[in-house]
Design a protein that fits this description.
The chain is mostly beta strands. Helices cover about 5% and strands about 45% of the residues. The strands form 4 sheets. It has a 7-stranded antiparallel β-sheet with strand order 7-6-9-4-11-2-12, with no helix packed on it. It has a 5-stranded antiparallel β-sheet with strand order 1-13-20-15-18. The chain has a 4-stranded antiparallel β-sheet with strand order 3-10-5-8, with no helix packed on it.
């Protein structure tokens, strides 16, 4: 099976779901491809985060920059965000792209243009470090889930103090070694909602890149099958509702199994980062 599906990116997780029995639902929420020129050079990190903006609060930069906690200066990067609750307005000093809830059509938003985003809408940022005016002028809080892939080398521009009324949470982030098997080139990045009915599982399969999973309804388990083994060894890792399955690169040849062994459906909000080169290498014997 062609992992690019005639030019369309199909993540390794989605291919594993398509091969699994049991009515698992795999819903793409937002997908983006970032070119090699857009991506930061040198060592990089990815932060999978959740951001809450209270009514009346505003931000001068995109929220993921405040989630790393290890840097005090702005770093070049790319990213995307999806609105889970509320509505807000953003004006970015760089072009961005918007994908509205339930649509695959992409709106190109010029630099310096106000755009309002509501529940289910998503924004794609080829220049994550651009200055912004992000405002919640409504009466309800705004909740965003997103990812930033940024350089670990600071640019020298100081990161402002976190504004009042803004709460960033780093759900999980990469280590430098997680990028060792990534060759230079474009990256596919996406958020997907996966619903597992009771007593269903995905895999064993080998991720083609990196993934992190926030468990919105659980529990779920994660088990690993070693190279040349037919079944996992040891007890699976159990993740309860509200927790996040961390991002980390699996050793070559190791496969994983994600399962719901409970009596209720489980729901995951999945971040996937895959390079073109790894996806295509999967076709090589």
């Amino acid at each position: 099976q062609d992992p690019t599906d005639g030019g369309r990116w199909v993540p390794a997780l989605s291919r594993a779901i398509a091969a699994a029995p049991g009515g698992i639902i795999d819903t793409p929420l937002v997908e983006a491809t970032f070119s090699a020129d857009e991506l930061p050079e040198g060592e990089r990190e990815a932060v999978y985060y959740r951001l809450t903006i209270k009514p009346g609060a505003s931000l001068p930069y995109l929220g993921g920059l405040f989630c790393g906690c290890r840097y005090e200066t702005i770093t070049k990067g790319v990213g995307l965000e999806m609105v889970e609750e509320g509505s807000y307005t953003i004006r970015l000093d760089a072009p961005l792209r918007v994908q509205r809830a339930g649509s695959t059509r992409i709106e190109e938003i010029p630099a310096g243009t106000d755009v309002t985003l509501g529940p289910g809408d998503a924004a794609i940022y080829p220049n994550y470090a651009a200055e912004a005016d992000i405002r919640n002028a409504g009466e309800e809080k705004v909740v965003l889930t997103g990812v930033v892939i940024n350089a670990t080398e600071a640019s020298g521009t100081p990161l402002p103090k976190l504004p009042q009324g803004v709460s960033p949470i780093a759900l999980t982030y990469t280590a430098p070694s997680d990028w060792d098997d990534f060759l230079p080139g474009p990256l596919h990045v996406g958020l997907r909602r996966v619903t597992l009915p009771p007593e269903t599982s995905i895999g064993p399969y080998a991720p083609a890149g990196l993934q992190g999973m926030r468990v919105d309804a659980g529990p779920v388990t994660r088990a690993f099958v070693a190279r040349d083994a037919s079944a996992p060894s040891g007890n699976p890792n159990r993740q309860s509702t509200g927790t996040t399955i961390p991002i980390f690169a699996l050793p070559q040849g190791v496969r994983e199994i994600i399962a719901n062994d409970s009596e209720n459906p489980a729901e995951l909000l999945v971040l996937i980062i895959e390079p073109d080169v790894i996806s295509l290498q999967a076709l090589t014997p």
